[in-house]
């Protein structure tokens, strides 16, 4: 029979190469993990008392003479473990997370590996020694197995020398403090557990003994043994207040460590959610938490370096599983942030009342305690508003379902209808309030911008004029190129400032050649806005249509050319529309008769030539504006509105809404 021949060299070449310090240390951590597992297997529940692991590491900035020795007093390389060692991808330790690739990582990282082990054999002991090399075959070199009758007990020693130039040499830490930091983080769940052997680590001249060394930096600890989650099953959360040195070499201060099979796979920074740099009386504490559970064990990759699910899952585990416990654990430090967060929430709900579904205290319960970013706060509140709306929609659907039943209780049905109706009314009021706030902001902004435009001086300040014009409505709309151009609808505008009849007008062009409305048009005149009050654009109807024209002039402008006489401009536009040469937004010819009514608005400061041209026009009822109603040519009117009067009238029209919404008269852009 013929079997497939494995190519170990290519298999190892395809292993993920290190991209950071933690990845580079993974082969060493695999050896330490094996040592811990071996002592746990030998001493069982007594491992904390009798188990011993010793790690000796040498490194420097040049990293030319790196070496590491890992020793333990576990079971040693007995016959079962030896068989597993020489079998790739073994399932010997699958129950505790072993993937059978740890020693493959050794070969990928270290060019020189020596193994020395004593193990029990019958009534005595044997010693097994060999060199482990990366070759196509015969990876076990200089193997010797001999009796060792005087051995004090079983042990295992792995010695590693040198680093390969496949990423390990570049990413391996040259400072001992980095090794201690990453080792502490990686084995933190083991160190704080009850089945950790005594682990002595020597790096250069510095030594630390774990798990005791952990207790020096952990000031407070709380274990949540079981958190039930429908999506993630049962999880365990351990929370700790630590000295800030625990985060000295990490990118951040506060972390939740996601653990699989007693190993740190991902350290998730929660700095932005907590809103804290450090905390405690001396501002020297950080927060670390350990999350473990079968869900994480089952979803880690073979090398135990990454989880096999999207990062969004980690976010959900933080938000939905951990966060309530984190907030309670850090209740004291987070209390100081409540006041600042309250101010931000009050500001958000003032501008966006639709997310103000409760008082500030209730809203704060729906967002992370330390969250201070406005966009994140709005996101949390919007999500909660959506969930509430969904629950209310379900209630309404339930009412409709009950309505179909013949045996429905009239009293119960009436009560359900009342509750559903009230909820809908509340939601509508919130949305309306938000719309009203937006109108107030628009008016405040335009008032501010008017002053800026006028202060600029001269007639050449086109940039600020553009800004002012764009704020009321988009400067341009999309056009369809090809054999001619057709106007497409713009998404929104604020033409209600001019006249409430313009609120829902959706088809218009802004500051584009008048000819862009039709293939046939050739005029270069440019009305700032051509607005049709039909939602679907111009359509042929039995009744005469209404056309609205709006022309904006720069605030403060006094000088105009002779052909800018507003009456003459409007008349030219009207004649062009009546000519039948134009098409609507759907490409259909525009056919207007003598009964079409044209409502034309000119917004400008009534000074200079504008005042002279319109001197004989009728005055509006308030005496501020001017109106001209032509006796021939077309039906309708031309109304001249001053910029200040435009704002004043818009405020007066909306003041009742502002008062009802509790909006003050102070500008949103006030410096106070």
TrEMBL record:
Species assigned in the record: Methylopila jiangsuensis
Source organism, top-level taxon: Bacteria
InterPro entries from the UniProt entry: HATPase_C_sf
SUPFAM superfamilies in alphabetical order: ATPase domain of HSP90 chaperone/DNA topoisomerase II/histidine kinase (SSF55874)
Protein name: ATP-binding protein
């Amino acid at each position: 029979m013929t079997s497939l021949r494995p190519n170990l060299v290519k298999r190892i070449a395809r292993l993920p190469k290190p991209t950071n310090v933690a990845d580079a240390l993974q082969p060493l951590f695999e050896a330490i993990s094996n040592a811990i597992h071996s002592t746990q297997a030998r001493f069982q529940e007594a491992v904390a008392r009798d188990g011993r692991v010793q790690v000796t590491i040498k490194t420097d900035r040049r990293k030319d003479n790196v070496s590491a020795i890992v020793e333990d007093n576990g079971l040693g390389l007995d016959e079962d473990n030896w068989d597993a060692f020489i079998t790739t991808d073994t399932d010997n330790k699958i129950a505790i997370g072993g993937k059978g690739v740890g020693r493959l990582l050794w070969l990928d990282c270290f060019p020189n590996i020596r193994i020395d082990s004593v193990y029990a054999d019958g009534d005595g002991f044997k010693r097994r020694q060999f060199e482990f090399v990366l070759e196509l075959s015969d990876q076990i070199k200089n193997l010797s197995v001999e009796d060792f009758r005087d051995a004090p007990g079983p042990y295992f020693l792995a010695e590693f020398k040198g680093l390969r130039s496949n990423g390990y040499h570049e990413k391996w830490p040259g400072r001992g403090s980095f090794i201690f930091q990453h080792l502490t983080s990686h084995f933190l769940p083991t160190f704080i557990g009850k089945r950790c052997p005594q682990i002595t680590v020597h790096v250069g001249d510095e030594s630390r003994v774990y798990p005791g060394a952990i207790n020096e930096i952990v000031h407070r600890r709380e274990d949540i043994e079981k958190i039930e989650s429908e999506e993630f099953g049962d999880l365990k959360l351990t929370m700790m207040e630590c000295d800030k040195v625990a985060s000295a070499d990490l990118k951040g201060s506060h972390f939740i460590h996601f653990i699989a099979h007693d190993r740190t796979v991902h350290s998730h920074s929660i700095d932005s959610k907590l809103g804290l740099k450090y905390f405690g009386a001396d501002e020297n504490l950080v927060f670390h938490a350990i999350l473990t559970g079968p869900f994480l064990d089952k979803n880690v990759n073979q090398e135990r370096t990454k989880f096999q699910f999207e990062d969004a899952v980690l976010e959900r585990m933080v938000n939905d599983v951990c966060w309530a416990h984190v907030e309670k654990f850090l209740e004291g430090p987070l209390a100081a942030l409540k006041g600042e967060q309250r101010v931000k929430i009050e500001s958000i709900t003032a501008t966006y009342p639709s997310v103000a579904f409760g008082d500030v205290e209730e809203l704060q319960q729906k967002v992370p305690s330390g969250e201070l970013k406005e966009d994140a706060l709005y996101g949390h509140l919007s999500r909660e508003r959506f969930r509430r709306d969904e629950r209310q929609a379900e209630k309404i659907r339930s009412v409709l379902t009950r309505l179909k039943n013949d045996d429905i209780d009239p009293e119960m049905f009436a009560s359900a209808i009342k509750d559903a109706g009230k909820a809908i009314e509340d939601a509508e009021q919130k949305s309306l309030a938000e719309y009203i706030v937006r109108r107030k902001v628009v008016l405040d902004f335009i008032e501010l911008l008017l002053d800026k435009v006028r202060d600029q001086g001269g007639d050449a300040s086109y940039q600020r004029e553009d800004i002012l014009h764009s704020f009321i409505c988009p400067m341009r709309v999309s056009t369809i190129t090809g054999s001619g151009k057709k106007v497409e609808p713009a998404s929104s505008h604020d033409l209600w400032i001019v006249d409430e009849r313009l609120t829902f007008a959706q088809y218009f062009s802004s500051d584009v050649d008048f000819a862009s409305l039709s293939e046939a048009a050739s005029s270069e005149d440019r009305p700032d806005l051509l607005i049709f009050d039909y939602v679907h654009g111009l359509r042929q109807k039995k009744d005469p249509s209404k056309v609205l024209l709006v022309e904006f002039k720069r605030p403060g402008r006094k000088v105009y050319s002779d052909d800018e006489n507003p009456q003459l401009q409007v008349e030219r536009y009207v004649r062009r529309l009546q000519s039948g040469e134009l098409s609507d937004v759907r490409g259909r010819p525009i056919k207007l008769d003598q009964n079409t009514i044209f409502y034309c608005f000119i917004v400008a400061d009534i000074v200079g030539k504008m005042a002279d041209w319109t001197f004989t026009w009728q005055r509006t009822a308030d005496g501020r504006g001017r109106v001209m109603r032509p006796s021939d040519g077309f039906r309708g009117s031309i109304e001249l509105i001053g910029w200040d009067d435009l704002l004043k009238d818009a405020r007066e029209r909306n003041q009742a809404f502002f008062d009802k919404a509790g909006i003050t008269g102070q500008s949103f852009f006030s410096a106070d």
